[in-house]
């Protein structure tokens, strides 16, 4: 008989007793004791057992016609979901005459009793996963209720040093943070804040970094966990509550009063993205005087074009605003729901390809770990980056697939496509474009619309 060894570990379990090498050795010995040949070893490193979206598992399932048995170290290595466990055993293994054997529970599917026990144990595997998750959430809530932040020794909070999971003011960083708040109150603009800080000789951070610092009430003494709990912390505040809420009022005014002047505002506000560097395109205006006449020019350029105090230029094309807007409006006026679906299918293919690449990266990383090239501590940070990309692509794929299935949304979008765009007011045009378009990607002369 040919047996496939299936191994799944998370980075935390590698620190404990379920390492890849340990599972491989024990399962290989089991196969030898039964006089089974090892067909192949399928390893999913760092993947959750809560779903079946695992590359090695799916590869093994595609080869069941060449396999007589699947062997795992423990039942929860196959899955921590009762539904997925039953699906794998009944819909995949048994239908392909493949036996399933779990070493730790000494169970296999060759007998009715074994199949029944596997079903029962899968309930407990799922219960354990859900219990661990609930305990983690409760632990976080209890910590916040005690006035302690969620930041741990591995984390880093600008303005504070983390000692024994508690926050203590870092005077040098706190001094800079107070200056950031003071300058922002004067300038009421993060862009001007960045320019002022550069002139003062400080390292300039990204727009989002300053936005996070200026809106995080941790700095005026509070701690929170999602929408579940928000209380006064035990750490010493860096910013007074009065100043913090003055800054929030500035942000509130900025949000309520966007510049909607037709000559200077962007019809494609927050829609245009640079394909070269991933940053947004910014709408700009330039006034020039020629032969006594004043001329106004509008254009769209990558954020890196003028933000040289913060970013390196990426060299993408600068588009005349009227030309780009005319091009987009023309495509909107010729909007075809059928062609939109074709675009969505192309987008899904692209996302699936990117997802495969990230999974391949993850597998290569674990191959290096198995070969001793990385320690677990090194693996965690790299794996987190890859997991973040995988989660992003999976969410995009799920959203696109759900949209395609939702007939009501399709009908609404088809109705929107019949609107006479040119008859709308400027603000209505902006809102209308955002009801149809997710993003507009610029790569030199090439303009690609990502429809909603």
From TrEMBL:
Residues 2-147 form the Resolvase/invertase-type recombinase catalytic domain. GO terms for biological process: DNA integration. Gene3D superfamilies: Putative Large Serine Recombinase, Chain B, Domain 2, Resolvase, N-terminal catalytic domain. SUPFAM superfamilies: Resolvase-like. Zn(2+) binds at residues 274, 276-277, 302, 314. Pfam families: Recombinase, Resolvase, Zn_ribbon_recom. GO terms for molecular function: DNA binding; DNA strand exchange activity; metal ion binding. Residues 157-257 form the Recombinase domain. Keywords: DNA integration, DNA recombination, DNA-binding, Metal-binding, Zinc. The active site is at residue 10. Transmembrane segments: none annotated. The keyword Metal-binding applies. This is Integrase [Bacteriophage A118]. It comes from Listeria innocua serovar 6a (strain ATCC BAA-680 / CLIP 11262). The gene is int.
């Amino acid at each position: 008989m040919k047996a496939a060894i299936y191994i799944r570990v998370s980075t935390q379990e590698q620190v404990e007793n379920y390492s890849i090498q340990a599972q491989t050795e024990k399962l290989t010995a089991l196969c030898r004791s039964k006089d089974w040949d090892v067909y192949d070893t399928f390893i999913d490193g760092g993947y959750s057992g809560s779903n079946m979206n695992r590359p090695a598992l799916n590869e093994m399932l595609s080869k069941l016609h060449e396999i007589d048995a699947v062997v795992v170290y423990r039942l929860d290595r196959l899955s921590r979901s009762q539904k997925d466990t039953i699906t794998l055993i009944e819909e995949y293994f048994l239908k392909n005459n493949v036996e399933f054997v779990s070493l730790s529970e000494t169970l296999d599917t060759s007998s009715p009793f074994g199949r029944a026990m596997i079903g029962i144990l899968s309930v407990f595997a799922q219960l354990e996963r859900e219990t661990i998750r609930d305990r983690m959430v409760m632990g976080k809530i209890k910590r916040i209720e005690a006035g302690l932040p969620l930041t741990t020794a591995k984390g880093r909070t600008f303005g504070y040093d983390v000692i024994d999971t508690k926050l203590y003011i870092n005077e040098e960083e706190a001094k800079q943070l107070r200056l950031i708040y003071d300058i922002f109150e004067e300038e009421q603009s993060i862009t001007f804040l960045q320019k002022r800080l550069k002139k003062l000789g400080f390292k300039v951070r990204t727009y989002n970094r300053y936005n996070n610092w200026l809106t995080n009430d941790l700095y005026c003494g509070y701690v929170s966990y999602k929408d579940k709990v928000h209380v006064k912390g035990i750490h010493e505040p860096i910013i007074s509550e009065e100043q913090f809420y003055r800054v929030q009022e500035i942000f509130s005014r900025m949000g309520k009063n966007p510049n909607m002047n037709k000559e200077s505002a962007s019809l494609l506000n927050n829609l245009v993205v640079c394909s070269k560097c991933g940053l947004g395109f910014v709408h700009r205006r330039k006034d020039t005087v020629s032969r006594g006449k004043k001329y106004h020019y509008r254009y769209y350029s990558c954020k890196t074009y003028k933000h040289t105090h913060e970013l390196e230029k990426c060299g993408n094309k600068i588009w005349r605003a009227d030309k780009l807007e005319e091009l987009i409006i023309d495509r909107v006026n010729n909007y075809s729901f059928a062609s939109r679906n074709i675009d969505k299918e192309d987008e899904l293919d692209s996302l699936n390809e990117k997802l495969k690449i990230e999974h391949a990266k993850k597998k290569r990383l674990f191959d290096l770990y198995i070969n001793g090239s990385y320690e677990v501590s090194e693996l965690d940070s790299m794996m987190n980056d890859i997991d973040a990309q995988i989660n992003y692509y999976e969410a995009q794929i799920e959203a696109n697939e759900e949209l395609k299935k939702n007939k009501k949304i399709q009908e609404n979008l088809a109705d929107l496509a019949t609107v006479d765009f040119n008859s709308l007011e400027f603000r209505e045009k902006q809102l209308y474009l955002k009801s149809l378009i997710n993003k507009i990607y610029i790569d030199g002369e090439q303009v690609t619309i990502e429809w909603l």
